[in-house]
Each structure stands twice: as structure tokens, then as C-alpha cells.
């Protein structure tokens, strides 16, 4: 297996872990679970997301496709920023549970868009012709 394939598998695995942890943390937020305060719950997502970002950057360099040059990567980066903002509102900064829940659903939908853009390599994602 070549280095790109290894990186791609690492990236996809880290993305699955990332969304799984985000979904779980959102469920715990909705029910006010004390699990949200556990040290591993607060640390593991940051470690995993760092691995996700590092693998993405390394793949971009290897295949010589860069955000703000390739439209589909630009769409992914901009959607990632929206996902991070929504995730922050959902898990930390939302003033009410309704706001947090709405931001959580928005973040999950944004993540689905990011995946569709990656699969289709088109900014329109699943709506690409």
C-alpha cells in the first residue's frame, strides 16, 4: 500500500471517529450527562482532530491539490470552519439547550456535506451533475 493510501485510510478513520465522538458528546449535552466532564472526553477529540487535520494537509501536499486553488478543497475548508463554529456553539457556547441542539444538528449536516464534497470532489457534493 502506498503512502497516499495509508494517509487516506487514516484520514477516513479519523473522520469517522471524529463524527462519532461529536455525535456522542452532543447526545450527552442534550441529557446533561456528567460524562461530558470526563478528562478523556475533553482530550481525545482534540487529539483525533489533530490527526485528521495533519493527514488532510499531508494528502493535499502529496496530491498537489490545495484550498483556494481547487474549488472542492476550498468548499471543504470553508465547510470545516462552519462545522467548527457550529460545534463550538453546540457543545460550549450555546446559551440555551435549544440553541445548542440546533447548532448540533447544523454541525452534523455540515459534516455530511463535507463528506459528500470529498467523495464527489466537487463543491456541490451530492448535488454535482
Q: Which secondary structure elements does this structure contain, and how are they paired or packed?
A:
Layout: H1 3-30, H2 39-63, H3 71-93, H4 97-120
Could you please describe the fold and organization of this structure?
The protein is mainly α and 129 residues long. It has one domain (3-127). It is built from 4 helices and no strands. The radius of gyration is 16 Å and the shape is globular. The termini are far apart. The model has no long low-confidence stretch (mean pLDDT 95).
Percentage of helical residues?
over 70%
Order of helices and strands: HHHH
Average pLDDT, all residues: 95
> How many structural domains can be distinguished in the coordinates?
1
Largest sheet data: none
Low-confidence stretches: none
Beta-strand level of the residues, as a percent range?
under 5%
Structural classification: mainly alpha
What's the total count of β strands?
A: 0
Name the overall outline.
globular
**For the CA atoms, what is the radius of gyration?**
16 Å
Distance between the termini: 32 Å
Number of helices: 4
Supply database-style keywords.
4 helices; mainly alpha; 129 residues
What's the quick description here?
The protein is an all-alpha fold. It is built from four helices and no strands.
Amino acid at each position: 500500500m502506498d503512502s497516499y493510501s495509508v494517509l487516506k485510510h487514516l484520514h477516513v478513520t479519523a473522520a469517522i471517529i471524529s463524527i462519532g465522538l461529536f455525535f456522542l458528546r452532543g447526545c450527552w449535552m442534550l441529557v446533561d450527562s456528567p460524562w461530558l466532564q470526563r478528562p478523556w472526553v475533553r482530550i481525545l477529540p482534540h487529539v483525533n482532530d489533530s490527526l485528521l487535520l495533519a493527514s488532510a494537509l499531508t494528502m493535499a501536499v502529496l496530491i498537489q491539490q490545495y484550498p483556494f486553488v481547487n474549488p472542492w478543497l476550498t468548499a471543504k475548508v470553508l465547510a470545516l470552519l462552519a462545522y467548527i463554529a457550529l460545534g463550538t456553539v453546540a457543545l460550549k457556547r450555546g446559551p440555551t439547550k435549544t440553541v445548542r441542539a440546533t447548532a448540533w444538528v447544523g454541525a452534523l449536516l455540515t459534516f455530511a456535506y463535507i463528506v459528500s464534497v470529498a467523495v464527489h470532489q466537487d463543491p456541490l457534493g451530492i448535488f454535482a451533475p
